[in-house]
Amino acid sequence: xxxxxxxxxxxxxxxxxxxxxxxxxxxxxxxxxxxxxxxxxxxxxxxxxxxxxxxxxxxxxxxxxxxxxxxxxxxxxxxxxxxxxxxxxxxxxxxxxxxxxxxxxxxxxxxxxxxxxxxxxxxxxxxxxxxxxxxxxxxxxxxxxxxxxxxxxxxxxxxxxxxxxxxxxxxxxxxxxxxxxxxxxxxxxxxxxxxxxxxxxxxxxxxxxxxxxxxxxxxxx
Length: 221
Description:
Helix content: over 70%
Radius of gyration: 20 Å
Distance between the termini: 61 Å
Structural class: mainly alpha
Shape: globular
Largest sheet: none
Number of domains: 2
């Protein structure tokens, strides 16, 4: 893909969409840590300096992609949770919520990888303008997540739902990182079966962690 010089707002918007789409495709092939601005530029058909006319850094590209992925995931979660079911016990509804969160996250590996890299990698080397844009979008998604959680477990209230979401996101990122190790660690697990006890699988580990977290924040009767 190659581009002529963008001369209109629509052409500039198309360049941004192409850069984001190319980055999204690359993340289905390799982890966030291996996505370079040079390779992104080559694949999108623009010079690296031209890509930097649209995004101030590689991290800015990935943060905007993360915002879009998060927005789509919250819609997935809302659909998976479905309508309120007050006839079920709080424990049963908690189980259903955890199942929906883990299932929808597992189907979005790109989002999980981006979440795992957010604080340590993606929130560095960016401008204040990029940071504001990302955090404002995150705040909108956060409020939507609170609404989904409260719809399922009104016992939590908005504060309890907020605490659950904040901690759950940290758990999801950390567990994703540990359950998708670098090749050397993966080879070590495969070479020594005795290490299986400390090997982490994403869905079971996140399910157990979120259940423990939810039971901790649910009000005691």
